[in-house]
Amino acid sequence: MFAVAHAAGRPGSLEHLEQKYSECHSQFAGEMEELAKAVDAQENYGVAATIRRMVPVLEEQTFDVDDLPDEVTPELSLTLPDEERQWRSQLKRIRMDYARELFLLSQRALKTGHVSLAFHLVREVAFHDPDHRHARQLLGYVRDHDRWVTPFEKAMDARGNVWHERFGWIPESHVGRYEQGERFFRGRWMTADDEASLRHHFDNGWEVVSEHFEIKTNQSLERGVELSVALEQFHRFFRREFAAVFNSPQQMRQLFDKGASASSTSGHRHHIHYYHSKQEFVFRLQNKQEQIEISNGLYLPSDRTAYFFYNPDDLEGNMETLFHEVTHQLLSESQRKIPPVGRDADFWLIEGLACYLESFEVDEEGRVSVGDPAHVRIASARRRRVTENVYFPMAQFTRMGMQEFQHPQDLETLRKYYSQATGMTHFFLHYEDGIYRDALISHLSQIYSPNDRVRANTKSMAELTGVSFAALDRQYLSYMAEMDAVFAGVEDATEGSTTLPR
Q1: Helix (H) or strand (E) holding 352
Q2: Mean pLDDT, all residues of the chain
Q3: Of 61, 413, 419, 485, which shows the fewest CB atoms inside 10 Å?
């Protein structure tokens, strides 16, 4: 379930910790089922069903444990009927006892380097005991009277700002006038059109600040806020799914926000520049990047900034490019000094993961999905392998460094590289219900390690999986054929809508 590290059987080993987790979970599930049966006996079937739903399936990462209440849990009312007060009191005790055990286990996991397991456990602690101070602190929350907020939210509140779904964080006293079409800029009120005219020059653009991102744009305030919301959703997903990548002490501090220090200054945020047109994007970046005119987005590690532009003809592709480049940004900026990655080998995963995460989606009910086989990137990987019979053996393909990967003789070959990198990423994350997922994340962790020695001696996927490249080739080809048989009727769109090679 989680990325492998120390030898099995030792007190700090992943196997030992997972066994202890399983034992705690089994005891918890048993106690919850007994309580649910007691509530069933009172013919309170709805409540019993709710109690049973509070036991997450051990083998699954559940999104529910991310949905924590904002309000501090109130004490049980003395006016409750005796039977209800009894089962509510018992439910609270069972969950708090379980949370206490999980927190102790999470600390053991963190101290022994099992970051993914530790992060999962801390999230589950807060799910069962929303007022667990240490778990909340590790997840980046502080208590503000009777509410749990992030340090950033607390700072915004202290300044008299409120969150508005269209305008982001603005002074509470401004809300009414903003909704009537007025804007406050340079110390005076003006119409929205007048403000837009003044902010058209990028130097005067809007600055939309959130917990983890700082977006500067001259497109519109509303678009900046939309991007801010989407990026925070992506950040939360990325931090959860790829927690094991962040396994150095510095990266762990970045992952576990440590309460009041979390994102309290702009230096901790990821910087985004979003221009009002492709023309301006090219004009401003042409001296920074060759062939910028063929790109729809760019992340420059030297600037620690990701660059994009507004494309009204393809807003979906616009967002996919954003997720692609921000994937590079999140991985690169997980430490103070950005390491040189993929220069001599393993560049396939750097681009493959970014292309794969272009498929990130959040539906109207807030449910996240990623890796849709019908997505343009993944459909193209299927088509090139199955229909066009394009394939580069893994032993050869994984040895390619940045220069060889990104600068072949022609653009079509480059597209083939990107397609196979995307397909291989999908394969290693999803094949046989994800049996290679931990190995892939371990590989990614080594590629982005702050330790020069670890990066120079990155283990191959064959070594990490214990399966030869020849066998992995056969499994991959079979996987792609089976996936294509299911989705053969789905037409993939042109790749021009997504980010192009840099």
Answers
A1: helix 347-356
A2: 88
A3: 485
Place of tokens 């001696």: 457
Pull the structure tokens for residue 229: 């919301």
Q: Provide the β-strand partners of residue 299.
A: 306
pLDDT in tens, 157-205: 999 999 999 999 999 999 999 999 999 999 999 999 999 999 999 999 9
3-class SS of residue 351: helix
Provide the pairing of β-strand 147-149 with 142-144: antiparallel
- CATH number 1.10.390 is the correct assignment for the domain at 339-502: yes
Helix 45-53, helix 14-41: angle, nearest 10: 180
List 208's β-bridge partners, or say none: 215
CA dihedral 116, 122, 123, 127 (to 10 degrees): 150
Q: Is 160 exposed, middle or buried (0-12, 13-18, 19+ CB in 10 A)?
A: exposed
189 phi and psi angles, rounded to 5 deg: -90, 145
What burial letters (b/e) apply to 239-267, b meaning 16+ CB within 10 Å? bbbbbbbbbbeebbebbbbebeebbbeee
**What's the confidence (pLDDT) of residue 310?**
97
For the cut 50, the answer to whether the pLDDT of residue 496 exceeds it is no
Please, which residues have CB within 8 angstroms of residue 38's CB and are 6 or more apart in sequence? 87
- Report the b/e string of 383-405 with b at 16+ CB within 10 A: bbbbeeebbbebeebbebebeeb
Asked if residue 243 has pLDDT above 70, the reply is: yes
Strand partners, 183: 190
Q: Where are the domains of the chain?
A: 14-149, 150-337, 339-502
CATH code, residues 150-337: 3.40.30.160
What is the rounded radius of gyration, in angstroms, for the C-alpha atoms of the chain? Answer: 25
Nearest one of 60, 125, 65 to 95, comparing CA atoms = 125
**CB atoms near residue 454 (< 10 Å):** 16
The gap between the terminal CA atoms of the chain, to the nearest Å, is 35
Q: Which residues pair with 19 in a beta bridge?
A: none
Q: Which 8-state DSSP code applies to residue 249?
A: H
pTM of the model: 0.87
Q: Encode pLDDT of 400-412 as tens digits.
A: 999 999 999 898 9
Q: Are 83 and 159 in contact (CB under 8 A)?
A: no
Instruction: Collect all residues with Cβ–Cβ distance below 8 Å to 176 and sequence separation of at least 6.
Output: none
Place of tokens 């950005």: 338
Check pLDDT > 60 for residue 397.
Answer: yes
